[in-house]
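Slide 14.
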Amino acid sequence: ACFNHSVVVTNINPENKIMKRSSRLQPLSREHHKALVLSKKIEIADCSRLDELADLVQEFFVAELEPHFLTEELEFLPRLVKFGAKVFVQQTLDEHQTLRSLIIEIRNGDIESLKKFGILLADHVRFEERMLFPLAEQLLDAQWLSGAERVGKGV
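Slide 15: predicted structure.
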């Protein structure tokens, strides 16, 4: 592997229970899985193929991550702010912005930013899955979480 880093995983589900997401959050969780796969590809990358990986990361960002971020920022996070989860929302927004900044650096040929991007992406997904989404499922209206209430495009 070209990048030597390890991710520290904190298990907030010590009983290893299957955590089923509400139907409104399930598509976002599936997208999170794709992001974790990408971060793993970055972690184990072969040094001779970093340019190819940088291209893949940029394509993934445009096709998958930016639309995912916009869905969260326009449909999901504003609802959490109304319930007082401003600290969690701000962390999410800050991480989205940092990932956007790192993509610009990668586009400009900064291969070292690829490593930073992979680490932050994995950490960000874990934060949302382990902290933000469980909080949302406690705070948000069950009708909205089930997908029964349609606002905008959905999700």
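Speaker note: The chain has five helices and no strands.
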